[in-house]
Amino acid sequence: MDIIKTRKLNLYYGTFQALKGIDMDIAEKEITAFIGPSGCGKSTFLKTLNRMIHMVPGVKITGEVSYRGKDILSNTIDETNLRKNIGMVFQKPNPFPMSIYDNIAYGPKLHGNTNKAQLNDLVEKSLRGAALWDEVKDRLKKSASGLSGGQQQRLCIARALSVSPDVLLMDEPTSALDPASTMKIEELMIELKKDYTVVIVTHNMQQATRISDKTAFFLVGELIEMGKTDDVFSLPKDKRTEDYITGRFG
Amino acid sequence: MKIRVMLEKVMNVILCLSGVTAIAAVFVISLYMLINGVPAIQKVGLVPFLFGQTWRSTGSNPEYGILPFLLTSVYGTFGACLVGVPIGLMTSVFLAKIANSKIAGVVTGAVELLAGIPSVVYGLIGMLVLVPNIRTIFHLKTGTTLFSAIIVLTIMILPSIINVSVTALKAVPKEYEEASYALGATKIETIFKVSIPAAKSGIAAGIVLGIGRAVGEAMAVMMVAGNVANMPSFFKSVTFLTTAIAKEMAYAPNGSLQKQALYSIALVLFIFIMVINMVLNILLKGRKEK
Lengths: 250, 290
Known about the structure:
The structure holds two protein chains of two kinds. Chain A is an alpha/beta fold. Chain A has one domain: P-loop containing nucleotide triphosphate hydrolases (Rossmann fold), CATH 3.40.50.300. Chain A is 36% helix and 27% strand. In chain A, α7 links the parallel β7 and β8. In chain A, α4 (116-129) crosses α6 (149-161). The radius of gyration of chain A is 18 Å and the shape is globular. The mean pLDDT of chain A is 94. Chain B is an all-alpha fold. Chain B has a single domain (55-289), classed as MetI-like (MetI-like fold, Orthogonal Bundle). Chain B has a two-stranded antiparallel sheet with strand order 1-2. In chain B, α3 (67-98) packs parallel to α6, α4 crosses α6 and α5 (119-137) packs across α6 (146-170). The longest helix of chain B is centred in the N-terminal third of the chain and has 43 residues, at 2-44. Classes of the chains: A alpha/beta, B mainly alpha.
């Protein structure tokens, strides 16, 4: 089933058109990877899906984007609720400068959960979900800045899980990490797809082949090709896709 | 090549000497204050000096108790902070996070102007505008009160708090705020739960500066507080530590106990400010280590 759909999505930064008529369907409980050279619009597209792009001054959007049938470009959408359902993990690990516990409890508290016992459970569940619990369970009250980069990124994933999202958007979540941490997060993502729909932007084509079910290739604001990851990488339909994945440019 | 090596050494010496200047100044001032401040305290006695409720330096039977000044300085500073810190913090949030660049520019200009106004002008305006109005509004015999001084001090500490806090709030990494928005937080929630906590040590530095300014201010306070050595009360004329010195220094005979006692007040003021600085610094560092 398709959980997110876009039709004829155009996006402008001022007069510059960053996205050109994107039609895409994103399937539930799969990993969808966006690949393409820098500046191709893949991150912009990702941020459109939880309206983070609306925070950029001078952005203009036309077309349709729907999440479970709801028009998310509408001005009347409950942005708070949308972002609770569609969580996001950023390129650079960005834990809040507070304790590990408070990092995770932040989201649930925002959405009105103040029950101590429930929060404790949620913190444990979220940290377990991000495969971090065993490493931090003895120092939950310590500052999150003492964690390694890879741990910090898993903490950010746990933080995103804490509000029980439906979809997780990940904007190059491993580009700032070493190979060992990257591997852990990739394993985690495959685990996560049992319960969540995952959309990931990546610069790393091997990563896309390792973890994703579907791959979408972007080039200068256009969606060139999208399909099953195996098909896109073994039998690309478009010459430009083939050139990119074989390393002829990018 | 030799010239460059020489230059390197000379510059090192100059830089080192500049550093020493600051330390030397602090050291010499401390020493001077101690030497001049201690004799009167010895003559009067530490407890009668600090906790004596009467200051009558020119009477035939002089008394030198500075508790009225000490408490007035504490109350005045506390009162100014009670009102000035929230206003200053909210203004900083407005400037750093809410206002568009046009409005922010106008407000920032106004705040800078506020910082540049000489304290005697604050005093003058307080005297001409504030004092008569307070007298009429509250039906008092005189408008020169602790209350008037607190209002003037409140406005005077705003620029210190605002300038430093705005810088601290602007330095909060955008990534923290993005993470908060992505979890469904609103702008106000993000500001109060993420941005302000992340900037707290900078904001606290601004508050310390403000407190320093309020404790040390003499001129403006002297013009609106009435300068009577009363125990502090909201609607009474009072004397601050600073004004107690400034008011009598000019006519106290050299070598008299009165003059020595004024030096002692200065010593108390000096220690008072150092203690406040130290306590706040320890509080801040303690929080940071957590």
